[in-house]
Structures are given as structure tokens and as C-alpha cells.
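How it folds:
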Amino acid sequence: MAVTIPKEFLDELKLKPGTPVVVEKEGNGLLITSKARRLASDVDSKFAKMVDEFFDEHDDVLTELSQK
């Protein structure tokens, strides 16, 4: 499924085609947010990248597990 986002929103939020987003159900609508994550000041960026790659690689399994 694809969703079209108006250009002015893309520009304002600095989103480009292919930018990962998270879609969540909120009430009778959907909330779409950037998947970009802020790092806590004490989190090593190399470790954070490894965690992101793990979640991206195993997203299907983690999603299934979260629904059990």
C-alpha cells in the first residue's frame, strides 16, 4: 500500500522519498512519524546503528512477537 504526502509537509518535515516512517493507528486515523531516532547523550552511535540494523533486519519477527 502506498500513501501520498503533500509536498509542503515533506519539505517542512525534511522527508525525502524512501525515508523510513512509522505508521500507527490513533483513534479513527493514522499517525505517520519519521523513524529517525534521537540518541541519548550516553548512547554510543556505533551501538545505536547496530541496534537499528538489527531491528530493520528482524522487523517481521519482532512485529509478530509483539502481537502475541
About this structure: Residues 61 and 67 are 10 Å apart (CA to CA). The helical segments are 7-13, 45-57, 59-66. The first strand starts at residue 21 and ends at 26.
